[in-house]
């Protein structure tokens, strides 16, 4: 079995969940600050997950050689899906 077939997402530190920016009271500055931090943290975790997938995909390409199209397909699909959805947006909404 190759490394591409056995790879799974690593576990990362879990923070206490707080209400999102849409759910907090605009006059509560501590809640807004916590919601902003949570949003940025979540975005960066997703971006780093995409980076980890890319690193595993690169490793798979190197180790599998000519069979990389077949052996690394699921990592390539995961990476393409992740770069479309896992972007760092920040807490501000652009119009």
UniProtKB/TrEMBL annotation:
Query: Record's Gene Ontology CC terms?
Result: mitochondrial inner membrane; respiratory chain complex I
- Key word Metal-binding present: no
Q: Which residues form the signal peptide?
A: none
What protein name does the entry list?
NADH-ubiquinone oxidoreductase 12 kDa subunit
Its placement in the membrane is given as:
Peripheral membrane protein
Primary location recorded for the protein, binned into one broad class: mitochondrion
Sequence similarity: Belongs to the complex I NDUFB10 subunit family.
Name the UniProt key words of this record, in alphabetical order. Answer: Electron transport, Membrane, Mitochondrion, Mitochondrion inner membrane, Respiratory chain, Transport
Subcellular location, record wording = Mitochondrion inner membrane
| InterPro entries cross-referenced by the UniProt entry | NADH_UbQ_OxRdtase_su10, NDUFB10
Organism of derivation:
Thamnidium elegans
